[in-house]
Each structure stands twice: as C-alpha cells, then as structure tokens.
Amino acid sequence: MATSEGAKAEQRRLGLEVATYFTSTLKYNFVGFAGIGRHGGALILRERATTTEGEASGQGQEQGQWKGEVEGRTLVIKYSHGRLASARDASDADEDLRNEHRVLTRLRGAEHIVQLVPMADCSLRIPGMSDGEGTYGRGGEGEGEGEVTDRGRRCPTFALEYLPGGTITKFRMRVRRHTKLTWLPSRLLWRIWLCMVRQCVAMAFPPDIPEERYVAGNLTRETLKPRPYTNLTQNSAHADNFMFGLESQIPGLEHEPKLPVLKLIDFGRGKIESERRSLRHLPNNPDEFGSRLNLFNASWVMMKVCCINIRENKPFDLVRPAVTYRWDGPEPGEMQTLAPAIFREHPTVDPQLRTLLVRLMPEYLSNTLPLEDVLRETATAVANKGEDDPTLYTPAGRELPIIESDDFIKELIQKVVYNAD
C-alpha cells in the first residue's frame, strides 16, 4: 500500500525533530535524509568545519602562527521512534536498531561492510516509542520516552560512515540516464560480484575485534579463516542495501581501475540462523547454511546489475517450480535453479559469471557451491581475465561490441558513480 502524503509529511516532521537534536549543538549541519520510514530513518549530517591553529615552519613557509579550517566529516545517523508514527502498527524498530548495532559491532573492520562511527552525541540508551517498551536504560534524570525538548526529539541513535557513491538501484538508473549502454563490461561485473562475495565472507567469519583492540577506520580484506563458519545472515538483500563508497585503501587488483568499494548495509534483521533451520536445509554441513543463503541473496541482486537495461521488477521474480539449467565448459553439468529466464539466457554477460550466479540460486541450498569455491573462482577471474581474454565475450557481445578496457571502465565509473548527481 502506498504511503499517503499526510503520513510522509509526518515521517518527515519526526525526522526533522531528531535532526534538530543534533544541529542544536552547533556541531552539525543537516544535509538530508538517507532514508525515512514509519518507525525511523537515517539522517545525513555534516560536522561543521573547525578552526585549527599551529606553528608554520619549514621550507617554503613563513615562520609564525597559521590558522585554517578543517572540513568536518559527513555521517549517517540511524534512528528509531517505534510506534510514534503509527499507533495502529506494532513496531520492532527499537529492537531492530539495537540488533543492527550489535551485528555491526561484530563486523567492525570488514572492508566491504558499512562501518560504525563512534559518536558521543548518539546513544542507544535513550528510550524510543515502542508502545511503552521498558528495556532501555534511562539516558538521564527525568528523561521520558521519545522526549521532545527545545533541542529536538531524543530517540535511540547510532552513527555510520557516509557512502557517497549511492545504491545499486541508483547505479542502474544512472547508467541508463547518463549513457546509452544496454550492457556492462564483464570485467566490471566480476569486480562488483567479488565485493559481494567478500561481504558473505565477512558474515561467515566476523572480525569480532575486542573493544580494547578496535581502532576506528582500520579495515582489513575479508578472508576465509581456519575455524567453523558463523551462521550470520543479513536477511534484507535488495538493491538499495548495497552501496558504493570510496576507493579502496587496501592494495590489490580487486578494485582496479580506481573502482569504489561496494558495501553491504542495513543489518536490522541480521541474525544467527538457528541450528534447527540450518540442519533442515543443510544436514551434512549446517555451519555453511548462512553463507549459502547470503550467496543466494547476493546473486539475485547481482543479476539485476548484469541486466542493467531492464527497468521492470517482474522479470527478476524467482522461477517456481525450478527449471533445469545446463552448462558447458571444463566441468559441464546441470541443476535445478530458481534463476529467471531473463538472466539464464543473458546474451552478453561472461558465460562463466552467468553460470556461477545461476548455480547459486538453486532449488535446494544443498545443491549449490560452497563459499570457499565461489571466492576462489571469483578472485581468480578478477586477477586473470584481461580485456583481451576471449572467454569474456559471447557472440552477441562481440557484435555490439562490448568494451572491456580499463580506460572504458574507469570513464564509466567516473560518470555514473563519482561525478553522478
């Protein structure tokens, strides 16, 4: 059901009250909404520039005092206000927010996961409006639930890094708007997909950095670990929850030429899958159930990236009952898949990538590839497939012709990510 204009106006009003709490301290400027809904949302704030003074010395500088402004960070503030926006609609928004913070704390330091930002003005200990929920500690003497003061509304909040490149949804729209392309280079698709696989690795092996060892801003690339998998799942995989950030600061070919890191966001529904469910779906190796479910969901979103020219959602619906898919190559085979025809029959995507993604959307997760194999195949393709690799091209791709050069990919990303509106 579409949200009425009145409800949207009320959601915006409540969000602005939360923003006022931060802007009233004179430390932040309100930039806009990153997202807004019935029970909470996400604000974009920018720290106000600070004046810095110091001693000027050294070659090419006059000795003495200097004064300059240091530009503030741009941050995202997630907030919840429970049932406040709709008294008839029960909400777990406060618990979702707490849960997301717990999950993201486990994932601190993972390169392809959105990162928490320590911020003294945020607190999860401020009561929300979840119908009198009493599980929050009091934020201070005399503070009530969702209290509104001259400084704005106090709600449970935490801060996240700002990802300037936008979502996969916006990426698809920008490609259609700013280019005449009906395809994307497969070398770019492999790199985007490797980011998604790294996200699955992070959830299978969370960094779990102890508080005393955690350093904000320090990131590491996600790798498989010699320990049991963690059955952590994100459970909200859609194109708006994959966002492009900045260029990677970690050396390597994965994000070349100068590609932004794709990060996974929104862990409000993140959870450790139950042993019972894991055994039911994957009786022989239940510890890998979460990673295979995450790969299934990621491959469905990646399918949309590959089908850049398809605007409608209906063609991406999973096929039920499953259909038979056959593939050739060094290890030919067949399987029952839920992948839709729009992708199974895609005419221009590297056939190896197409087959890999289709195999990750099986009728039963016991019939799919393990995370270890997916990471190996994807990383190998990224490292070894140069622009002249004949396996990248289908007959239809050669006719267009598809361009796989670094220069073309760099120019495309500059246009639709770095310079986009």
From TrEMBL:
Species of origin reads Rosellinia necatrix
Q: Which key words are in the record?
A: Kinase, Transferase
- GO MF annotations, alphabetized: kinase activity
Name of the protein this chain belongs to: Putative serine threonine protein kinase protein
Q: Where is this region: Disordered?
A: 132-151
